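[Q] Does anyone have a clean structure-token version of this?
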Amino acid sequence: MNNSRILTSHKRGLFGVMAGVLAMALAVVTVYGAGGALPGAGTEADPYRIEDRADFDAFCGNSNYWDDCTRLDTDLDLSGTVYDRAPIAPDMTSGVISPFLGTPFTGVFDGNGHCVAGLTVYTEDVSRRYLGLFGLIYTNASVSNLVLDDIAVTGGGSCRSIGGLCGALLAGTVQDISVSGRVRAYDNSRWVGGLCGQNLGGMIVRCAVGVHTSAGKAAYCVGGLCGYNEGAIDLCSSTGNVGMGSHSSTMGRFCGHNAGSGGSIRRSYATGQVSADGTAVYGFNAVLISGASVSNSFFDSDTTWQSTSEGGTDKTTGEMQAESTFTTAGWDFYGETANGTDETWIKDGYPRFARSVETLTVTLHPGTGGSIAEANNGADYVGMFATGAASPTITVVADAAHAFDEWNTPLPGTVTSNVEATAQYTVNTYTLTFHSGARGAIDGERVGTASKTARDIADNQRLLMIFLPEMKPHRT
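[A] Here you go.
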């Protein structure tokens, strides 16, 4: 089990940014809340299980759970509860300049695809920091497969390290997380992000952040996904708006400050507005320190209203919604194999994670008498779509002498279930009319008709039968 700890920090990086290595020492800390026993043994094979709200409260209230394996087995609605600090691994600091004081999260938390809705963290206390669902996610910890919906995290003046998921990530791993809602900090705040305030040597992978992020006057390091990054961020998206007050600095639509030799951002994108009162803002990243990098990443210059950034490439909305923009940069999309077979992204307007949305399959067979221009493999078209996405526009190429008629199963306007349909065709037919003319008949009838395909005759070809008089032998 885990002992309570004090974490200390030192300054490092440009302008003395508080982002350094956190050292640990034993201390006695009051446990936040009260807890009971969770089902499970806390191992990888038999994790502790959160099966209802009472289990969640027990998990939050007992730090002994925070260095073991835990799995969320139900959706949770936290609406109506207001936390004045992070529910899990909170900072217990009592002074403005104090370092993190508390028990960090060092275990494994598997959200198991479930949703935690309505999280509200609110404080006006200037000593409160490390705000989010988690206060501090620490070395060797892992948080994954979780949806946070309609969150509201608000920090007071001079607060530090605020995010939707966590205040800070230190050398741990966060992956497959989706966050929506609002993160807000008051004046003189630092390190504010939609997902995490600071990433200090951690790894963030496949996270979709749709959070409106804002800070007051004289704020520093604000980003749509991360305020300050010294770790690795890969395959992430940040939407929503980002804003800060006057006399502030270092704000980017995706990240505020990307620093250090370990600060890397790859294959990620940002959309939404970014604005500040008299302060320079950037479409993707504000400050890029030597040794840090941003690669194969993009931001929407139409929605951000920006065309400059320290890393990241500006694209129009139309370009951001074109799959080719991303596949040429090595992004792995469903249905293509040039960039891998992980099927990470699907096209649904802007790219979306295939695993983060309910997806449905549309299978179309060309039938007999034609082919499908958009077919991925062989003769069939197979596409994966997010639930509610518009049905595909398909080009059917009919064989000669055929015309496309309809799908045997009508394609819906939007995809709400798996669809399978086969193309049907009409064979072009033409009428051949025979006129018996004068002095003769056709099989005893004056007029008869027959149908043949265009392979046999030209369009509505008319044949005229001419009768010649019988020729008798000439006698001499």
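[Q] Thanks! Anything notable?
[A] Residues 5-242 form one domain.
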